[in-house]
Amino acid sequence: MVDKMKDVSSFQNQENLDITNLDYIEQEYEKFQSGDLSLSVEWNNFFKGLEFSKVLFGSKKDNLDLKSLNFFKLIQFYRNYGHLKAELTPLCISNKILKNETQKDLFNIEKFKLTPDDLKQSLLQTLKDPLLPKGRAQDIIDHLENSYCKNISVQTGSCKPEVREWFYKQMEQNSFCLNQDQQKQILSSLIKTESLEKFIHQRFVGAKRFSIEGVDSLIPMLEMGARFSQTQDCEEWVIGMAHRGRLNVLSTFMQKDVEETLVLFTNQESTKDKDSESHNFTGDVKYHIGQSSNIETEHGSFHCSLSFNPSHLEAINPVVCGQVRAKQRFKKNTETRKKVMPILIHGDAAFIGQGVSSETLQLSSPKGYTVGGSLHIILNNQLGFTTNPEDARSTRYSSDLGHSIKAPIILVNADNVEDCVRAMKIAINFRQTFGEDVIIEVTGYRRFGHNEADEPKFTQPKLYNKISSHPTVKNIYAKHIQNIVSTEDFKKEETEVWDNLQKKLDKIKSSDYKYKASVEKPNDLWKKYISGSKSDILKPCDTNIKKETLVKLVTNLSQEPNDFNLNSKIKRLLTKRKDFLDKNLIDWPTAELLAYASLRHEDVSVRISGQDVKRGTFSHRHAVFTDQINGKEYSALKEINKSNGEFCIYNSPLSEFAVLAYEYGNSIVDPSFLSIWEAQFGDFANGAQVIIDQFLSSGEQKWNRYSGLVLLLPHGHEGQGPEHSSARLERYLQLCAQGNMQVCNITTPANLFHVLRRQMKRNFKKPLVIMSPKSLLRHPKNISSVDDFCSSEFKEILEETNLVDPKKVESVILCSGKIFFELEDIKLQAPKKNQALCSIIRIEQLYPLDITKLTSYINAYPKLKKIIWVQEEPKNMGAYSYINIELQSLLQTLGLNHINFEYSGRPSMASTAEGSSSIHLQEQKRLILEALKKAFVI
Hints:
Elements: H1 2-12, H2 23-34, H3 41-49, H4 53-56, H5 64-81, H6 137-148, E1 152-155, H7 161-172, H8 180-203, H9 218-230, E2 236-241, H10 246-253, H11 258-263, E3 291-297, E4 300-306, H12 316-330, E5 340-347, H13 348-353, H14 355-361, E6 375-380, H15 389-392, E7 409-413, H16 417-434, E8 438-443, H17 461-469, H18 473-480, H19 487-509, H20 534-538, H21 547-557, H22 568-582, E9 585-587, H23 588-601, E10 605-610, E11 625-626, E12 633-634, E13 647-651, H24 657-669, E14 673-678, H25 689-696, H26 699-703, E15 710-714, H27 729-735, E16 742-744, H28 749-758, E17 768-772, E18 783-785, H29 787-790, E19 797-799, E20 811-815, H30 819-827, H31 832-835, E21 838-843, E22 845-847, H32 851-859, E23 866-874, H33 880-893, E24 900-906, H34 917-934
Parallel strand pairs: 2-4, 2-5, 5-6, 6-8, 7-8, 10-13, 10-14, 14-15, 15-17, 16-17, 20-21, 20-23, 23-24
Antiparallel strand pairs: 1-7, 3-4, 9-18, 11-12, 16-22, 19-21
Helix pairs in contact: 5-6, 8-18, 8-19, 9-10, 9-16, 12-24, 21-22, 21-23, 23-28, 24-25, 30-34
């Protein structure tokens, strides 16, 4: 804000533009004459019409040009800062954020070296600006006052010149006019909006509904905006919003039967909860749920979907963008991206306060994430729960965050519903014209507390005294168009709406009423998918491929591209890949690429996203090559089956929260893609924990939304310190229940290949979390044979290959992940007779745990005395707590209580790992030796 005021002051006091110092002016004029594109749009407009030669060639005939120059500065000041004078709030609230600003004199003509007599002249008589009226300077000021200083204004100072020029036309043409039918429609909408809120308020006293009252204009904005979108080549909206006004948006705008809204307040049981195809469905509270509707207008059917949203307010924004991206792909509209538009509705405190808002804005332009612009609507209640603006932000407006991406910002008073509708029309027009984000900040108020059981006068008594006596938007607008809709007709319509609500409630409360919620039918893409249970996940799945196909694909992945300057290290990598294939072997990096290549060969599309995924954090993937001379990129995976589907891989911005949310949104819309998000290090997913907790792990249970998203989380204690060791495996296992997802810690290339292909081969979708290795990426023992890819499937549990006689085994070491290789290395150094006493079993899929297979292993060892769980993570982390419960239950069920279950690993720790690599090595060696001693090996 301080910088903004400096800009204002600088604009008003450019002493270098004085008549006595023309160097700068002449320099700009020369740019104008030469057509220099670096010349600002303001100076370009000025020079177009002003006969500036009087100044340049020393004419002293009069002082008109200096006055014109100063007046030109005043014009631009109105265009850039008119919002400072605009009447943008329904309530005269003293905003303490502005306490250090002296706005009173900002538009004083004396600051621009003009006098009242100057305003009587035609100062810009030669300025050919079609937006300005001809005549006196005062006429132009009046025009600018009406354009920028009433109930609607804009901030475009940070925008590109062509955007500023476009908005000048939008604001100054003043061509916006609603016909009488549209005005009647708006009033009807406001009547429905307010009546619903008041009806619920009176009939269900104290019930939470997060009322829309104070920003009621949102509903006409959406209704009129949808109609205008239809005329602008848009076919569908995907809306994301938090709680406030959500129920009204569902009922009034999205035309959801109001009976369904009212019944939610009566706690009637829904038969949907017992739907056999939704056996895990637990539901969510009424102000979190979503809806899809076909809204019928005079232009035809318009599809809108309001996405579900948890109480983590702004988390839905990138999810919606991911959904929109997938829908644009369906409509084959990835060039213009006009047919599907994201509408993101924010609260003022949440938009500026939540970091994910900024992260989402930064996704607006990168190739892998752009959706052709989001339309943001900020509902400024001037309060965040009980927090005043000066405590909620450091900026003048909550929308100022948009300046980071040079987005235009439209500011509008919520009490002026026609200006709100106009703002919506301008924003849609801009989005469809420029394909970029645009923000509308609607400043209103909140008629009640944060929720209707809250008492706002505890903290804002003066404000709520004003609100209690302030007329509603409906009544303001009814008075405004009373010459079109009489008071009698207005009251009649109010009564009809209220009576209809009462009839609905009476019906609900009748003794024979049975509520059956409408169930949204899946679209054609999702019809074949079921919910899926733990037993479904554990069923075998055919994921192998023919050997000739494997050889062909790996050969293609091993070839150097033609006319390409390949890095010498990658050349060696390709040679190594060919050598392995000649030996009928596949390493980890090749297995991963082969999984994608084989799916592409079968017409399945693949999308991978995350930080540095093209190369891979650990330089293992190299899915994309970069020419060492010209920087061009090449991907062999993109060349496979180009006519059907696609391979997409995108390096993301340095974001976890927004990018993971985006990929989740993509995955719940489009089951035809294998969607993958990779963290740079596994624990970086901590920054996206809201998405993992509130969406990924529970979205099916809360909202009946399936997702097959894959998370690749590098994991493994290798002496890199606390922040680069653990992907927090324990957190994912704590979230597991009801067959909601799959958690794997994979140790063979073949198993990685099969588990990735399995995601696309089943009739259900479940998130897959893979604890990806780091050191194992190049471990000499982490190799699979070609046969493992061609005549096998994913194996949830693996036994070591060198075990000879199960009848000699007295102990079993259970483990998961890379610790297996370290245990095996030390075990093989022991005498053969000692080796025979122990079997090492690694669990590749921790959830759901394959109890049947684990039981078969345990029953195969008649002399078994103990089972030792070994992990490198601290005892209070990793899989121990989860495995302890599962195994103790299994042993009890099998009647094997005589078998001891023991733990070997690091003790409980506050940090995930040691900071010293030497201490790490000591601890790693200690826990391995301890485990093998317990297992009778050493």
